[in-house]
Amino acid sequence: MKAQKRNSLELRPIGVIRSRIKERNKAPKQGSEGAPNVWLEVHPFATPALDGLAVGDDLIVLTWLHRAHRDTRAANLPVLE
User: Fold this and answer.
1) Residues linked to residue 39 through DSSP beta bridges, in sequence order
2) Residue 29 to residues 10, 25, 39: CA-CA distances in angstroms?
3) Is 18 within 8 Å of 39 (Cβ atoms)?
4) DSSP tag of 34
5) Which of 31, 53, 61, 81 gives 20 to 30 Å between its CA and that of 46?
6) What distance in Å separates the CA atoms of residue 31 and residue 38, rounded to the nearest whole number?
7) How far is Cα 5 from Cα 7, in angstroms, rounded to an integer?
8) d(CA 39, CA 10)
9) Binning pLDDT at 50, 70 and 90, where does residue 6 land?
């Protein structure tokens, strides 16, 4: 692994999100619109980082939606009240 500059950050994939949805036009815009459950398949090199996690623990998962439109510059986000 290359040495990194101080105050830098490197993101690297640790797995793959799987879903039964296979076509972008079939996906809901928001999870509350009926999105199915998904699962995270973790690559073997990353499994030691899961040690100590328990059912019900929270995780933050950053995703790269590889079929998303890359020319979209803004999104309409729902307002939480």
Assistant:
1) 18
2) 29, 10, 18
3) yes
4) T
5) 31
6) 11
7) 6
8) 24
9) confident
